[in-house]
Amino acid sequence: MTKYKQLALDLKKEIKSGYYSEKERIPSLREIQDLKSCSLTTAKEAYRILEEEGYIYVVPQSGYFVHPNISSLISGPQNEFYPAVEADDRIQQIMRTVMDPKLISFGAAIPSDFYLPLGGIVSSFKKALQYKEIFSYGDLQGNPGLREWIHKRTSIQGYRVNSEQIQITSGCTESITFALLSVTEPGDTVIVPSPIYVGLFQILETLRLKVVEIPYRKENGISSDEYEKLVKRHKPKVFLFAANFNNPNGILMSEFTKQSLAKISYLYGIHLVEDDIYGDLYFNGTRPKPLVSYFPQELKGPKSYLCSSFSKTLSPGLRIGWVASKTGIRELSKRTRAYKISENNPTQMAILEFLKLQTFERHLKFLRSEYHKLTEEYTKLLDFYSEGNLEIQKPDGGFVLWIKSSLDGDKLLSESKKIGMAIAPGSLFGLSKHWDKHFRLNVSVGFSPKIREKLIQFSKLFLKKRKS
Question: What is the pTM of this model?
Fold first, then answer.
C-alpha cells in the first residue's frame, strides 16, 4: 500500500473512532506532515482521498473539517477500485446452497408460483401452438408484435422508443450482457452501486472489466457529487445500475438524483446500462421513470440501454427479456446475431397472446398489493421475534428485504440450513467486505402458517447471539 493510502486509512480510523468529532477542524497539511512524519505530497494525496470519500471538507482560508454528517457517510462501504473481478466460483458455491430444493429458499429472488399467472400462460401457449410460424426462427430482432407492445408501454413510462429500437433477449441478464458488450472492451472500467444484484459481478468478470463501487448512503442513496468525483478520478466507460427498486436493498432513486446522474454521465461521455426489471413492482404512487429517460439522446453522444424482462412478473422460466435503446440498438443486435440466430419463437408468441388479453396491468396491481403487504408482515414478525435485534431496510418496491444483523451472513446461511431454510448472505452483493453482516430475504415465498413458523425460528437465532 502506498504511503498516502496508508495515511488516508489511518485518518479514516481516527475519524470513525471519534478522535475527531463532526464539524471539528483537523490538522492542516503542514501540521499533519509533522504529526505523521510524511511529505507534503503524501499529506495532500491523503486529504484528497478523504475529501472525495466524504470524510472531510475544506473551508477556504479556514482549513479542513470533519463532515457534519459523518455518522451517515461512513455507514456504507468505502469507494473501491477493482482491477479485476473474481466472484463466480464463490457465488456459485453459495448459490448451490441458496437454491437447494430441500430447503425453503428465502434467498433466491424468484417469485413464488402462487403469485404468477401460470394458468393464463398455459392457455396462451396452447393458442400460440395454433400458428405455423412458431416453428420457424422468427424475426432476428424479436417478434414484431411483442416489440410493438414493449415500445408502447416503455414510451408511456417515459423512455420513448419505437419497435425498431428494441431487441428481444433471453432474459434481463442477457440484455445487460449484450449492452455491455456493445460499448466496452476488456480492461474498460464500469462503475456500479453497492450493494447490487449478484449476477452482475459474474457478467463483469466474464467480460474482464474493471469495477468501481459507489456505495448507497443512508438517507441519500447514491450521491451525485460522489459519483462525479469518482468519474473524474477513474474515467469509467459505463455506469451500470438499477434506479428503480435496486436488488437487494429495494431503494428507489429520487427523480432529482436520476436527473443529476444522467447529466453528469452525459457530460463525461459515460454510457448508461439500466436494469429496470423491478420497475413495475412499485408500492406507492405511479410507475417511476427510468433514469435513462433523462439522458440526452444524440447519435454521436454516449449511449443508453434500458434492460428488463418478464421474469419477475410472469415467470422466470420463460426467459424472455429485452433491451431498448434509441442510439445503440443496431450495434447490440449485431452482437446478439453473433451468438444466436433468434430468440425462442413459441415463447415470444405465447407471451404476446397473454398480453393481448389485457390482464397484465390487473396482474401487476395484484402483485404490488401482495408484495407490499408481505414486506409489512415480514418486517413486523422479524422485528417482534428478534426483539428489535435486526435492522430492516424497508423497500420502496420489489419483493426482497435487505437486513443487517450482528451475525456474519455466510455463517447465518449455515445456521438457517439447520432449520430448513436458506437466506442470501450480504457478501454476495458487493466486492467489499461491508455487507458481510447483511442478508436478503425473498418475501414472495408467502406467509402460510408453515412459513410463519420458519420465520419465527429464524428470528430467534438473533436472540441466542445477543444473549451469549
Answer: 0.84
